[in-house]
Amino acid sequence: MSATSLLSLHALTGRIPDGALLAVPKDSSGVAMAATRALARRGVRNLHLVCVPVGGLQADLLIGAGAVTTVETSAITMGEFGTAPCFTAALRNRSLHIMDATCPAIYAALQAAEKGIPFIPLRGMIGTDVLRHRTDWKVIDNPFADDDPIVALPAIRPDVALFHARYADRQGNVFIGKEREVILMAHAAQTTLVTVEEIVDGNLLEDPARGGAVLPSIYVSAIAVAKRGAWPLAFADLYPMDDAAIGRYMMLARSAEGIAQFLAEWNTGVQAAA
Amino acid sequence: MTGCSQTELLIAVIARLLQGCAHVAVGASSPIPGAGALLARSQSDGAMRVSVLGSLRNNFFTSGGVELFDLAAQGRIDAFFLGGGQIDGQANINLVGTGDYPDTSVRWPGSFGSAYLYFLVPRVILFREEHTRRVMVPKVDFISAPGVSEAGVYRPGGPHALLTGLGLFSFDRARRRFRLESVHPGHSVEEIRDNTGFEFDSPKDIPATPAPDASVLSAIRNRIRGDIAETYPHFATRLAADERTSS
Which of A1, B7, B156, B184 is 20 to 30 A from B129 in CA distance terms? Predict the structure, then answer.
C-alpha cells in the first residue's frame, strides 16, 4: 500500500472517477462539502451514492447537479428545512434509481466488506416493503437452527469513501474522535479520501490519549486541507450550521440553473468565510 | 386543564409510557419524545438511562451509528419511538411515501432504522402529533415496518402505544388492533373517530388523558427544558413560548 498523499482539494476530488460507488457519512459525522462542490463543478457523472446511513444536503446537491444515477440510502432529509428538493424532483422525473434501505442494513453490509466476506445476516426487515423491493437481499434459513428465517445482505464495498475530519498528521493519520462510522467506511472502501480542517505536527498514533480515536494512514489514500470544509453544515463543535446558506439552497435548488448559480456563489462564499 | 400546553401534556404522557424501562433510546428529529424520556429519567430515581441521538451529554454511544442497532439486537434498549407519514390499524408504518412505489406521488425521507428497530425493541411508541385521515389510514401504501409478523419471524419487539395530538391508544398484538385508552382534554371520541381511517376498539367510558400535576409541570418547565435545549434549542424556545400563552 502506498503512502498517503497530501493533495490540493482539486486533485483529491480528481481521484473520484465517473461511475464510482461513493460512500459518504451522515450530516453529523463530517461531510466533505467543499470536496462535494468541487466534484459537482467538475461535472462528475453516474455516481452510485451510498449514504451511511442517511443523506442530506450533500446527496441532494449531487443529485441536483446530475451527478448521481443510483442512490442507496435509508433516508434523505434536509432536517428542519424540510423535503430534499432535488432528491424528490429526480424521483418524480424518474431520473434517479433509488435503493431504499434501513440504517443497520447499510452498516452491516459495510461490516461484511470490512471482514472481507461476501454477505452478512441481519435481524428484522422480514415482511417489509423495503425487503420486498430489494431483490439483491435474500431471506435464508439460519443454518444453525430450525425455522429461523433471517435476511442476508451482500457486502457493500465502496470504490471511494469521502469524509471531512478535524485534523491529520503528516503521516496521514486522521483524528476522527467519536465518529467511528468513518472508520467503518474506510475499512470497507478501496480508496479513502479525507478533507481536514488542518494538518498538525507529530504522530497521532504515538499519543495514547488520542490514538484510539484515529483512523491510521494505512486506510487513507489521500488528504486535502479544506478549512471550514463541512460548511454550510455544522462540524463538531467548530462551527454551527449556516442556516442562511441552507435556506438559500432550498430556494435555488428548484432548477438546474439555480444549482449552478449556487455552486458558483458557494465557491466565493467559502473563501469569504475562511 | 391546569394551564398546560399540548406539548407539555404529550411530554408527560410519554414519561408515563416509559415507566419501568432501564434504557430508552430516542432517534433523530424527536424533541417531544426526547423531553418525555428525560422527564421519565428524572422520575426514575436513577434507575433509567436515556440515549438521545444527537446529544453529547445524554448519549452512551461511542461506536458510531451502528451501536444503537447493535444495542437493540442485544436486548439493551427497552423503548424507542417511531413515527409515520401513514399509520394503519394494524400498526404498519410508512415513512417512504404515498402511491405506487417507486413512483411515489408524495415522497418522504425514507425508512431510517424502522425496518429493524420495530422488530427488536420491546416497547415501541408510535408518536405522531397530526391525527387526520391523511395520516391514520385504512392501509399504508408502503410498509416501512409492519405492526405484527408471521409466526416464526424473530420478533421480540413491536408496537406498544400510539400517541397523537388527540389521544392515546394501546396496541393488542394478538388481536392486531388499537384500543383507545384516553382522549386529550378539549377533544372527544367522536372527533378521534372522524379523523381516523381505521377501526379501533373503544371501551364505553374513555377517560380524559390526565394533565401533568404541578410538580411534573414544574420539572418540564425547568430541568427538562434545560436538558433538551442542548440537543433541540429551537424546540426549547418554543416550549417556553407555549408556557407563556397557556398559563
Answer: B156
